[in-house]
Amino acid sequence: MRIESLLLLAVLSLGLGCKATTGGLLVDQYQVDSFLRSHPSLSQIDKECLKNRTFQIGMTQEVVEVLLGRPRKIEQIKTGRGQMEKHIYNRSQLGIQFMLFDENGILSGIE
């Protein structure tokens, strides 16, 4: 458990802010626009990340999956902050290996 906590802290310190993308996403502009129209109550973070095709701490798991698709694998991780999910993508063309989500489905770390 201590190693997982240290790993989480390292990931969180690396993952603060936005992670820009330049390609390799599974969604085009039409799909983004359609999703935004059908989900008017999205948070401002989610809307901005969708429009700009970026990833930011605080966005929802749902929006990450719109941009990246389903993860290759999901691991459950227990930390001092509670239960986390590690979504493994291995999208090296985007510079994304995995994303960590808290128990509420909010993005907490990007590696």
Query: Topology as H/E string?
Result: HEHHEHEEEE
Q: Structural class per helix/strand content?
A: alpha+beta
**Beta strands, count:** 6
Helix share of residues? 25-40%
Main pleated-sheet profile: 4 strands, antiparallel
The share of residues in extended strands comes to 25-35%
Straight-line N-to-C gap: 19 Å
Which blocks of ≥5 consecutive residues have pLDDT under 50? 1-18
- Tell the overall outline: globular
Side by side, the strands of the main sheet go 3-4-5-6
Overall number of domains: 1
Mean of the pLDDT scores?
A: 80
Task: Describe the 3D structure.
The chain has four helices and six strands; from the N terminus they run αβααβαββββ. The longest helix has 13 residues, at 2-14. It has helices spanning 2-14, 29-38, 44-52, 61-68, and strands at 18-20, 54-56, 73-79, 82-91, 96-101, 107-110. The protein is globular. It is α+β, with helices and mostly antiparallel strands and 111 residues long.
